[in-house]
Amino acid sequence: MGLDSPVFLFLFLPMALVLFHAMPERGRSPLLLGLSLIFCAWGDTYSLWVLLGSIVFNYGLGLIIENTEPGRSRKIGLAIAVGANISLLIYYKYLKFAIENISRLGFTVSSQFDFTGWHLPLGISFFTFSAIAYHVDIYRENCHAEKNPVTFAVYLAHFGKIIAGPIARFRDSRGRFRTRSATLQDFSEGAMRFVLGLGKKVLVANPAAAFADEVFSRAGGLDMPTAWLGLLCYTIQIYFDFSGYSDMAIGVGRMVGFNFPENFNYPYISQSIQEFWRRWHMSLSTWFRDYLYIPLGGNRISKARTYVNLVLVFVLCGLWHGASWSFIVWGTYHGCFLAAERAGLDRLLNRMGRPVRHLYALFVVMVGWVFFRADTLTQAIQYCQSLFTFSTATYDYIAMAFLNRQVWAVVVAGVVGSMPIPALFGYMRERLEGIGDIRLLSFFDFNCTIGSVAFFLIVLIASLMALAANTYSPFIYARF
């Protein structure tokens, strides 16, 4: 059940909101936990058992680390916590990949491993990283272990963020995880944020995906214009898909009293790869910075070690996204550009104009998306070759068969919506808010105008109509 599925939109979410706001405050935590477990088990009961095991283990170990005196024993507790969570991730996400590659090298692997029907438990990459951050913060005395098991379980399993994050840290929002109140302003802002995310996903990301999927399926025989247009559509798709999910998760959280961290800040306006990673998937990039890059020495060590650490961190970042050589290449690619910028490329770029720096960053990011999107490394290499063939041999066929007004409209909306001023939705909302001075005083907060409500109603209705007319398309990051 995705956040944009009809079951969630018309059944689960309305029921959850009604029950939450009708429930006395002391009963809201158990209610949210029950709803989160139902959400997790909806289509995959096995994922529920994995999640419950993780909750029990991490809750208990957090208390042990908290109550252990600083020193060797506490370090051992932290090592067990981190090792166990990483082992869980390795078992479900990387074991099959490792065995397949070991077999290709000619080594005999035990036949006891049967990967028939093998799949990732729901949200495992996100709740394991949240758990690791929790233990490290307790060890560093940046937060205290949570003594209430229900509160801790809600932190790890909240249905709004479990599919694809953001990676919340208990230390940053522990007050909201312990109290269960949502003001009228929280609810209205959360509802509008949710609708905005739904519109991003359904009205922009899904139509862009249709063309991008068609083009990438023909990776071996593409002309240059088609290859770049397909890549542009995927560049739009992944941003609006993932930022749309993040908006929906943040919106759901706000409606029930949580403040999940922001995950995107217009990454496509970046003028370097360093800036891109300060704007893209911010909860993940800051996680790698705080819990891996800085412990490895950060920039306090020799230049050579710093460059190696940057590449290593992003190799692991690529591997976090999936057990595939194409993801490893994608992570290595970004790590190399980050190291190059740290080594002096940034100084060269700073001597150039803003348009040049922006084109550089966008070019590097878009070429990198080829490896992120391609099913295999071979397909990614073939696609990259098509980007620079300077051939237009098959463009007429693609244009006649697949290009239509909707594709061009999505490209325009995606390009405009990726910019902060004027952002597609923000600009339209701002224009509508100029209609009249009448304020709604009941369902929405006092600062919400009729024009603003009208805009979000239009987005909501258009999104629901698009969902009814098209097949369901899962979120990209749900598979991570």
Present the secondary structure layout:
Layout: H1 6-22, H2 28-41, H3 45-66, H4 72-104, H5 124-139, H6 149-157, H7 170-178, H8 184-216, H9 224-255, H10 273-279, H11 282-293, H12 303-321, H13 325-350, H14 354-373, H15 377-387, H16 395-401, H17 405-417, H18 424-432, H19 450-469
Helix pairs in contact: 1-2, 2-3, 2-6, 3-4, 3-5, 3-6, 4-5, 8-9, 8-17, 8-19, 9-14, 9-15, 9-17, 11-12, 12-13, 13-14, 14-15, 18-19
Structural class, judged by helices and strands?
mainly alpha
How is the main sheet built? none
Radius of gyration: 23 Å
Count of individual helical segments? 19
Name the overall outline: globular
CA distance, first residue to last residue: 15 Å
**Element string (H = helix, E = strand):** HHHHHHHHHHHHHHHHHHH
How would you concisely characterize the structure shown here?
By secondary structure, the chain is mostly helical.
Report on this model:
- This protein has 480 residues and is mainly α.
- Helix content is 69%, strand content 0%.
- The chain has 19 helices and no strands.
